Amino acid sequence: xxTPLLSLLLLAAPAAARETVVIDTDSGVFGDDGAAVTMMxxxxxxxAVAGVTVVPGNVWTRQGVEYMLHILQLLxxxxxxxxxxxxxxxxxxxxxxxxxxRRWGPLEYIGAFALxxxxxxxxxxxxxxGRKPAxxxxxxxxxxxxxxxxxxxxxxxxxPMTNIALALSLKxxxxxxxxxxxxxxxxxxxxGNASTAAEFNFWFDPEAARIVLRSRIPKKxxxxxxxxxxxxxxxxxxxxxxxxxxxxxxxxxxxxxKRYPGFYQHPEATAYLxxxxxxxxxxxxxxxxxxxxxxxxxxxxxxxxxxxxxPLDRRMAPDATPVTMxxxxxxxxxxxxxxxxxxRP
Length: 345
Description:
The chain has helices at 4-16, 31-41, 61-74, 94-104, 138-148, 162-170, 200-204, 206-213, 225-228, 235-242, 247-258, 275-283, 331-342; strands at residues 19-25, 47-54, 82-84, 153-157, 180-184, 220-223, 232-233, 271-272, 288-294, 296-298, 309-311, 323-329. By secondary structure, it is an alpha/beta fold. The two termini are 35 Å apart.
């Protein structure tokens, strides 16, 4: 059953010329996911956030729900519905990741596979929120949202695509009714950041990413590592955000300062805007200066290139729609947008 809030947002969005967005996230403590959600929530004239769905990736789903509920509290949006999604990738597992290391060498990042799925911690310096996700599961929520309001819902996919693939598998006919999917994931010419061949979101659930890329979703907009690597966040940018001293920038500083990339102990380190670029595009698409359209697929055969982005053999998926790959950007322009939205009181 669709929530009253979602129904109202979907009805109001066309009149107000706003983008109705479902955010699918694998948020950790904050990072780029938290920043992307902050950008969406703080842009009510352009975006109506219909709901936030949580997928495993950086952390397991239960932990991701807790982190997201905390972030929304800091944003003074505790009423925002959060839906718990899949418990695990479609096929990939911690055992497979361990075997991959044995066969082909170290992985740069394995996300939730390094964590205990039964453990849920509060955000740093906070208590557990004590709140629960919405009763409806994330997959059914996605199906209902698109099915009841065809052509109006944008999916902003910030993590592995498990929830979205499950929704497409549960009800394939929703694919052409999705307005668009804007996602961070994959790499074409750039090296991977999980394995040498694969970007983390695609690597964590290659089978799910393959289902989405082979789908009939009319518009697919990809922010892969090819463009993300052109949006570095160094200590000087980090300092601009934490200088605002708001609850959100303090959590930003706690995460990026003490965890990845650890700016407080490693001032020479570099992070990237990653998911924030996908969110920024919904607010100011003109910051992208180069893009290219292609039919893409994901290597889902277990091996050294598991999760790699590859060209699509269209004989295998003749109904698939192309992907618009974002390739270059105006960094000062997108950084200005990011800084403004992150540092607001």
